[in-house]
Design a protein that fits this description.
Elements: H1 22-31, E1 37-40, H2 53-66, E2 71-75, H3 83-92, E3 98-102, E4 118-120, H4 129-137, H5 140-144, E5 153-155, H6 168-180
Parallel strand pairs: 1-2, 2-3, 3-4, 4-5
Length: 197
């Protein structure tokens, strides 16, 4: 192939050993009244050399029409960085898909431009209270400028609730603070791990 994580026609290559049937996975989530999201342009499976528009088009086709995901997290690790292209193609599908801008505060909204539903304001969080507070503080600027708003929320990364490293009081204040700033409440632990409390 001329790409790393797409075939020569720009279609996404799925690890079928780990995900034997993506369509069945999202169907199962929907049958349980859950939503499912796809993590694209991420730091493990990112195109590092080039990303022609056909690649965006194929990813969106598979996202919306084949796998029928409800959300997409768009990271900043590869060449597929154009959030306008992503949003335009996703919105043309007619499927309601929540778009997460995970560009670590590097791609930010203006008063008239925000083609995603929420945007990351910080570096990666870690399960320490210092990291929780530091990440939380990155949302202040956006709230003060009126740029964290319905349809375009600033968020300080996922929750570290249930992950070893925070005590109970820290976990509760972490969860409460994310609620106060209207952050998505995205869990960061393996939901298959029964040991997580």
């Amino acid at each position: 192939h001329m790409y790393h994580y797409h075939d020569d026609k720009g279609r996404p290559v799925v690890n079928t050993h780990r995900f034997p049937n993506m369509t069945n996975m999202t169907f199962t989530a929907h049958s349980l009244n859950l939503t499912a999201g796809w993590y694209l342009n991420n730091c493990i499976c990112a195109e590092k050399e080039s990303a022609p528009e056909e690649m965006y088009e194929q990813d969106v086709y598979y996202l919306a029409k084949v796998f029928e995901f409800d959300a997409v997290k768009l990271d900043a690790c590869g060449k597929q960085m154009d959030l306008n292209v992503w949003a335009s193609l996703i919105n043309k599908t007619g499927r309601k898909i929540m778009i997460e801008n995970c560009h670590w505060g590097q791609t930010t909204p203006t008063q008239t431009w925000c083609p995603w539903n929420f945007f990351r304001t910080s570096d990666d969080i870690t399960p320490t209270y210092g990291s929780v507070v530091a990440n939380l503080q990155t949302t202040i600027r956006w709230a003060r400028e009126g740029l964290s708003r319905p349809g375009c929320w600033a968020y300080p990364d996922m929750l570290e609730v249930g992950v070893e490293g925070l005590n109970e009081a820290e976990t509760r204040s972490h969860f409460g603070a994310w609620c106060i700033v209207s952050s998505p409440l995205t869990l960061s632990h393996d939901v298959n791990d029964d040991a997580v409390s």
